[in-house]
Amino acid sequence: MPRFDYLIVGAGLFGSVFARQMADAGRKCLVVDKRSHIGGNCFTENLGGIDVHRYGPHIFHTNSLRIWNYVRRFAEFHPYRHKVKACCRGQLYSLPINLLTLHQLWGVTTPGEARAKLESVREPVANPANLEQWALSQVGRDIYELFFRGYSQKQWGKHPRDLPASILSRLPIRLNFNDDYFDDNFQGIPIGGYTAIFEKLLGGVDVRLGTDYFANRGHLEALAEKIVYTGQIDRFFDYCRGPLDYRTLRFETQRLAVEDFQGGAIVNYCDADVPFTRITEFKHFQPQGRRPLHTAITHEYPMPWTQMAEPYYPINSSANDAIADEYRRLKPPNVIFGGRLGSYRYYDMHQVIASALAAAEHELADPAHRRPAAGIFHTVTNCAAPSQASSDGHVVANYANGGNLMASEAQANWHTGGDASVACNYLLLGPEGRELARNVILHANGGIYTDMHHLRTRRWSRLPSVPNALLCGGTIWRWSDGHMTTTNLSALPAQRWRTGKLRRRVADSPGAGPGCAELRPQPPVPSDRSKFEIVVAKYREDVAWTQCYPDNTTVYCKDPQDSRFISLPNVGREYGTYLHHIVSRYESLSERTFFVQGDPFFHRPLAFCHYASAQESFKFDPNSRQTMAQAANWGWADQTADGRVKAAFLRLLERRWDITEYRFTWGAQFAVTRDLIRRRPREYYQKLYGISQLPEITLAGRRFDNLHIGFLFEFFWESIFCGQHTPQGAGGKADNQETGRCTN
Ligand code: FDA
Q1: Atom of ligand 1 minimally distant from the CA of 38
Q2: Which CATH number belongs to the domain containing residue 38 in this structure?
Q3: Is residue 228 located within the same domain as residue 345?
Q4: Is residue 240 part of a domain?
Q5: What is the mean pLDDT of the chain?
Q6: Tell me: the pLDDT tens digits for 17-52?
Q7: Residue 424 above 50 pLDDT?
Q8: Cβ of 57 below 6 Å from ligand 1
Q9: Helix and strand element counts for the chain (H, E)
């Protein structure tokens, strides 16, 4: 019987995160690394008070709140936002290319001038096949020659014509002064360096350093049931399908007796005849108060890789990827490949953490590796049969699978009659539970989600909270004092089952008991943020539900006490936040953005997947078609929106104002495509954003405060995106047609 559950080859980020997760789940891991230290390429050493990243500068950045929260369990982060300068032909420029760079190059001073100049120099190519074509088609020859040609050639040892466009195509080209190197919401440098993170990740785990897996393969493999391998994938198979290509680096670190060598953390050197690609001055990563009077810098020299050198970068050409695929197909069942080299993928740290967490979750979900864990129960999919406790210490809850429901409405509509009201939450643990949670917009952090506060403060104040409870298959499961108790609700009158989208099962459908509710599974939303992004406007709402979409969500927060999210001044309502996002991210919007308030459940949202995969370029749940003549009064007599007010508002929005009907954007929730947004210039949204910041406006002689301007936006989001533009002063019918529903 092997002594360890897992032999983990590599004490880098993948191996260490995997080891932590497994150790926390009670598994025994042995970690080996051929280097004399833990931390892999993130290794940091302290040189006279400066945290030097021995294998090149490492800036942590992610858009995933889940990953950000995870890594902050192991370190405090200095909120550093990465800026880079470029040195080309003896001149310094701002990077990535932004309005200042274009000013430095061409003297342009406004976004309009910059756009026009770029248009005039671009050499359009419909489908750029390589890095050179991509650069020429985006920025023209001068910029390509200055910034990209020499640098890429040095970095990769190949002419840009022989490099894939994907190397550069994620680099932003901005027409404003934003010079952030990364767009990500969460960025920082761990105070005290990365190595301390690894010490915590590997706390309590057996680690053997200076141990090469290949020098001790037979012996090491006999020690564990499974192998997690984060070294080169081709070497694992003794290069039997041929060697893969890598790029290596030489680092030259010097300690200098000057206080500040270059004024910032990184300067790139773009010219082909300068042999290094960048100089890093590490003290600039540290908070001001922690910088000594001397400095330390590292020159970075890219070099061809040989089997004696460290393989820092996989070179993901199509030929190499095909070979790597062949190796993946050879993978024995007891082996897990992970990390940059084991996956042969150019991963940043947040991606490595995400993939290690996913691998650990997958392992723990595998029935062959599952062990009873006291006090934990997991859900399994089975929609018909009644739920039961199983013999292995788990409670197996049969949930009527996945669905489009809101906890609040489910809670609000559950009554047992009289004072014994029942309100339910859904406890979803284990991978299936998390998958369900992702589908039904519930809490997925392994905890129990009770979200009763707004019910108490609004209409349903007499409902008591029932914490630690799960509603599934017509049964309430309650967890208390280490025991599950169940209450069967099938005797309830049928109508009491109503929730927003929770459908009552017809009594005679197979396997269904009376009153058994069916929640329909929904496909997960795409996790690629460039395709679908959820933008949340929050004040003090509990946005725990966003953890179901850790990779897609951007939360803006107007609560000055809460620094966990992107802070905005506490002015205006959600419409200002939405417009802020559009203005600030105009150049880097996702293909489709879903805008939503912090607590969307009070309204009736569609399933998030519907927003993600809509046919329409503007997707929302209209509560009805309203006539313009219909007066809306929100309880403030002087703020009634009648037809004249609405027309005046549309005029302000430069939208057609002589329409007779509109559809109200229920709950201020809608998804809109990037293409639709960009039919209008950024300046247009900037103007609307200006309106959102006003304390009040006057429309048709009536004053509307900021709250009610918000309602007016809800009337007309569809018109803003889909309606035809009416230049100010011009009027309605003659020059425009309202498009009504938008389609792609
Ligand atoms: P990593 O290479 O860190 O660890 C693998 C470990 O396996 C190594 O310690 C190695 O010694 C060990 N190993 C291999 N073969 C072995 C064998 N036969 N026996 C025993 N041990 C073996 N990311 C980011 O988010 N922001 C950034 O700014 C940067 N910057 C950056 C700069 C440079 C120059 C590089 C090269 C990389 C970055 N990165 C980055 C990427 C980051 O370094 C990377 O995502 C992670 O370190 C990858 O972690 P892994 O565990 O996959 O590999």
Answers
A1: 9
A2: 3.40.50.720
A3: yes
A4: yes
A5: 77
A6: 999 999 888 889 999 999 999 999 999 999 999 999
A7: no
A8: yes
A9: 23, 33
Please give the Cα distance from 187 to 588 (Å, whole number). 17
Distance from the alpha carbon of residue 333 to the mean position of ligand 1, in angstroms: 24
Does 563 share its domain with 679? yes
- Both 438 and 564 in one domain: the answer is no
Which of the listed residues 9, 13, 37, 41 should we mutate to test ligand 1's pocket, taking the one with most ligand atoms within 8 A of CB?
Answer: 41
Q: Are residues 33 and 62 in the same domain?
A: yes
Token look-up 């503007």 returns: 618
Which residue reads 């795409």 in tokens?
A: 526
The model's pLDDT over 520-551, given as tens digits with 9 standing for 90+, comes to 334 567 878 889 999 999 998 877 667 667 77
Helices 349-365/430-440 angle, 10° precision: 120
**Same domain? 596 vs 733:** yes
Which positions are catalytic?
Answer: 170, 174, 247, 278, 300, 346, 348
Residue 606 has pLDDT above 80, yes or no: no
9 pocket-lining for ligand 1 (C-beta < 6 Å): yes
- Report which of 465, 466, 428, 454 is spatially closest to residue 547, judged by C-alpha positions: 428
Mutate-to-test residue for ligand 1 from 340, 344, 345, 346, highest number of ligand atoms within 8 A of CB: 340
Residue with tokens 């300046």: 683
Residues 488 and 613 in one domain: no
Query: What is the model's pLDDT at position 351?
Result: 94
Cα(235)–Cα(538) distance, integer angstroms: 49
- Going from the Cα of 311 to the center of ligand 1, the distance in angstroms, rounded, reads 9
Q: How far apart are CA 113 and CA 87, in angstroms?
A: 24
Residue 339 CA to ligand 1 centre (angstroms): 7
Domain end point (choices 476, 492, 521): 521
Ligand 1 touching residue 264 (CB < 6 A): no
- 452 touches 462 (CB < 8 A): no
Residue 88 and residue 67 in one domain: no
Full domain range(s) for residue 667? 532-742
Say if 369 falls within a structural domain: no
Ligand 1 lined by 279 (C-beta under 6 Å): no
Q: Tens digits of per-residue pLDDT, 565-583?
A: 888 888 888 999 999 999 9
Give yes or no for residue 302 CB within 6 A of ligand 1: no
- Residue 113, domain CATH: 1.10.3110
Q: Is 340 in the pocket of ligand 1 (CB under 6 A)?
A: yes
**Is 330 found in the same domain as 222?**
yes
Measured distance CA(626)–CA(635) in Å, rounded: 19
Q: Does the C-beta of 80 come closer than 6 Å to ligand 1? A: no
What is the total count of domains within the chain? 4
pLDDT at 705: 87
The contacts of residue 47 (CB under 8 Å, 6+ apart) are: 253, 255, 296
Q: Is the CB of 164 under 6 A from ligand 1?
A: no
Distance 283 CA to ligand 1 centre (A): 22
Determine the atom of ligand 1 nearest the C-alpha atom of 347: 45
Q: Is the pLDDT of residue 316 over 70?
A: yes
| Assigned token pair, 480 | 């208390």
Domain boundary among 521, 542, 568: 521
Return the sign of the alpha-carbon dihedral for residues 640, 641, 643, 644. positive
Least confidently predicted of 165-169, 284-288, 420-424, 636-640: 420-424
pLDDT digits (tens, 9 = 90+) for 136-193: 999 999 999 999 999 999 999 999 998 888 888 778 899 999 999 998 989 999 999 9
Q: Indicate whether 681 belongs to any domain.
A: yes
557 Cα–ligand 1 center, Å: 34
Q: Spell out a b/e string for 405-421, using b for 16 or more CB atoms within 10 Å of the CB, else e.
A: bbbbbbbbbbbeeeeeb
- pLDDT at 727 (0 to 100): 53
Q: pLDDT digits over 704-743, tens only?
A: 888 889 989 999 999 999 987 665 544 333 333 333 334 3
Residue 257 falls within a domain, yes or no?
A: yes
Q: Is 667 helix (H, G, I), strand (E, B) or coil?
A: strand
The fraction of the chain above a pLDDT of 90, given in percent, is: 52
